[in-house]
Amino acid sequence: MPADPHTAVATVCLSGALEDKLAAAATAGFDGIEIFEPDLVASPMSPGEVRLRCADLGLSIDLYQPFRDLDSTDDDRLAANHRRAQHKFDVMRALGTDTVLVCSSVASDAVADPDRLAGQLADLADRAAERGLRLAYEALAWGRHVDTWEASWDVVRRADHPALGLCLDSFHVLSRTSEIDGIAAIPGEKIFFLQLADAPVLSMDVLQWSRHHRLFPGQGGFDLPRFLAAVLDAGYAGPLSLEVFNDVFRQADPVRTAVDGHRSLLALAEATAAGGTGTDPVGGPAPAVEGTAFVEIATGGEDPALDHALTALGFARTGHHLTKPVDRWEQGRARVLVNRAEGPAAAISALAVESADPPAAARRAARLGAPCLARAHGPAEADLPAVTAPDGTALFFCRPGVDSDWSGDFRTTRSAAAGLGVTAVDHVGLAQPFDHFDEATLFYRAVLGLQPGTAGEFAAPFGLVRSRALADPARRVRLALTVSLLRRGEWAPGIPEPQYIALAVDDVVAAARAARAAGAPLLGIPDNYYEDLAARVDLPSDRLAAYRELGVLHDQGPGGAYLQVCTEVLAGRIFVALVQRVGDDDGYGWTDTPVRMSAHRRQRLARRALTPG
Amino acid sequence: MPADPHTAVATVCLSGALEDKLAAAATAGFDGIEIFEPDLVASPMSPGEVRLRCADLGLSIDLYQPFRDLDSTDDDRLAANHRRAQHKFDVMRALGTDTVLVCSSVASDAVADPDRLAGQLADLADRAAERGLRLAYEALAWGRHVDTWEASWDVVRRADHPALGLCLDSFHVLSRTSEIDGIAAIPGEKIFFLQLADAPVLSMDVLQWSRHHRLFPGQGGFDLPRFLAAVLDAGYAGPLSLEVFNDVFRQADPVRTAVDGHRSLLALAEATAAGGTGTDPVGGPAPAVEGTAFVEIATGGEDPALDHALTALGFARTGHHLTKPVDRWEQGRARVLVNRAEGPAAAISALAVESADPPAAARRAARLGAPCLARAHGPAEADLPAVTAPDGTALFFCRPGVDSDWSGDFRTTRSAAAGLGVTAVDHVGLAQPFDHFDEATLFYRAVLGLQPGTAGEFAAPFGLVRSRALADPARRVRLALTVSLLRRGEWAPGIPEPQYIALAVDDVVAAARAARAAGAPLLGIPDNYYEDLAARVDLPSDRLAAYRELGVLHDQGPGGAYLQVCTEVLAGRIFVALVQRVGDDDGYGWTDTPVRMSAHRRQRLARRALTPG
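Above: the input entities. Below: the structure tokens describing the complete assembly.
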């Protein structure tokens, strides 16, 4: 039986006014919050009203923060700071919270001598204790004299005051050091508070890094399970609280951000428990994924051009859904459903993974806050467990094999043909909506147990694109996520970007030649690309000629090459790629993506020019 | 008579496909372009077709770029690099360009020994010279061995080859050093090419800084006039070419970006000429601004609430326009025009500055690519020179004084009253549309001769906001620009942000009290703000009580304080602030902006709740 940690979130993580933030935290399932002072200052709710609102929402107020620049070498300044603290203690009493975060000072009058600093902190701890309050002292990574967890612990130890303890913030610690084993030796009762944040590994000014680029645990590059294990080993039993300053989260829907953050804490606790420390609130690791059961395309209506393209690509229409306007197409182990229901074309509307334990996978997804997908189904039809991914894609969990639970919903009209050599779905490419890229990565990582690869970035014709692939260790399920970094404003052609299905073939030239002969609408690639390829890679001339003839893109990687041929954009927002991996290639052809995007853009413009009116 | 430099822009600066970029460069008035290789590779136009297209557009192809990682300690690799270069030389011949940019190598096999490196470059220069081509060698700031302009010049000097010269890029130079006086001693004929880019002063990995954050000259923090002067002093007479990698420009309308970039080169040449080097293509410094002649609000129709508010704020309606539905309101030297023409409410639709020489100011603006504003006016009415700013605000140039050219268009109905102590317009606050913030800063700087202050950033309730103020040295005209950094997506309340007119008063408490007594809709500020203010600033209790009563915001700066009282949002998208500057205050109250924004958001929500339907 999983045990739930006490989860909390700092109001600064979320967008909106204080009331928006409190409601979002409660909706997402947090147990408590940290009140970030500027959120309170801008609020018309009095501290007492905030206390009541939180109680109504079932939220404890776990921390008031931050109190900055307390210590001073200037006596007048120190007196003014004490006066300021007294005001804040009154606010805390009215809020009904007992712990205040005190940051190490960044001011020019900060105290350098650790004993003098400890004395000043102990003095304030005396005042706090008189009111039943306590101070959690935190080393800012850019503090003037105290900027490491060791230095903050040294000061707290010297002060030796029961109302003075530590606040440990994973960003401040891990942005400076990986020496964290010593944390486990701190007496647990002296760790008053724990703030958790991830971040991408960047080489930049640490203050800017902290204020703009923090991420929820599991979205960045820090080893947070190791950090949390050290803190739990010390005996810390307080809240696991998120403090994430992120430019995107600051302006995104706060409920959505809160759900994402809550998921990150559960996944972190699970990962830490998997390492042997703490308890797992999710309930066991993700069941293994064993392949892609099917990919569904929603066409929004009849789409003869898509049917023609699938046929030309070697697919056979092998069945019809018993009750819905859905066709099943097959080739090798690749299965594509075409959903012709009237409505908006959604490109890839559903992805089904073959799971070693579909019900367990679905329960796990629900524990991780994945929205359950209710689908109408007939009495004899399979009730496949399904959730909705952040980009709106439906995610089904199926038993492995073509005779799986879902296949019974289809009346088989013929068997799959040999086709042109497609063996399976290599991966799907899901262009993500704005601002949900990190959320999507965490979602697929936590819910499916996929491992994210290195985040990439490339200059596309109409702006920068971020990319990140996820795959299971055996490479049976792969996802390629992309997002436009800044696309907005009036000059934004080609939105939304198409999504795609990449199909594995053993010989891309042969497959593409057969597809073209059958009339598949293959995407034309400019001659300039092949001139450049010839300059970069020493290819046999007949091979280069075949590439040029068929539009093969050749991404030369360190251990092999990723070869692909793409179709034109079909069904409004989708294309199909035939993919051959040469050698140890584990890539996704990102290098060629700008060329591919330009070609698709031209194709769409040409089509628009041909469309009357 | 100003002399025009040969201006060029790298295609990488602009968004779109190659044909979009070429068209944009020509439209903006550039004389030439640099072809960025990936733009050509993705293009269906052959090099010969690109050559013809450029000729049709009146653009010279000044540079092909980049050629990377030429030199090598590995003979096979070097041979492959030479082979690659031969391919590119063929491309250049077809393009009809004679200069290729060769970057210092970042590869692990880069040559460290300067003589060996010079020998390899000379070898390639031999091959280039055989075809009438030449190499411009550039030190990347993150080159493996060659990463300063001095090191690149040392290698070029050692090679001593007529077809090998330098490319100087202001970013690569100024991101590493301010020691640039020695550039003037380089023989001018050895500087083959000059690339210009500005950048904000950031502390981060120089490659990331370069690839994402470059700006056009005058938009960042580099001393580009000094840099350009050194290069011109060396005798360089080639193109002034922009190479700017910027996340925003990469996805913005390329014509707009190109116009912005072209303006930046003209303004840079002018500033350099003002320092004594080169020629001024703009034609003399900006005539002095002597004050704000008027601010126009477009209400889109009758707006009794605005009329009532202006009256309560002490304004008198002193006249009506002879032919248009425009009223003139006055108080002290503050003049507000209310334009009731039917149409979309545009908040601040026009700003008129008092100029020492309006016709000269307008000519100068036109030289800088400011779109001329054609306004219908009657035969007896003033034909005020006007241009359109990047945010759509009309910008008029008027003679100083209330009896100026423009005032004759109004029938005076009464004289201005004493009002409640407003003396003048302190500044206007212009919330900028997405992606045009840096463009706007450069526009107002170049066209009006205002000096930008330090760029700021603050956490507003619904996302980060960037801010930048501009003012003339005598502080007679001030502008406060803001922009939401990332606001997009569905969760985006409060867009567009209101704009405002800040009115100078000598006693904000007295003025606010009088305004409130007259029924002005002053904005309510939460008690929490005053609790926090009391904790931060030791104010007399009666003063604090008055602030609380009237909603005064108090931003304590180092040399004084900025006190303001704001109205609610009026006319859909505008508010008025009464501003008292205490001591040497030169600020804009940014610290209080999040509180003000939250209060306006509440006011707008409450108004919506009260509106039936």
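Note for the figure: The radius of gyration of chain A is 28 Å.
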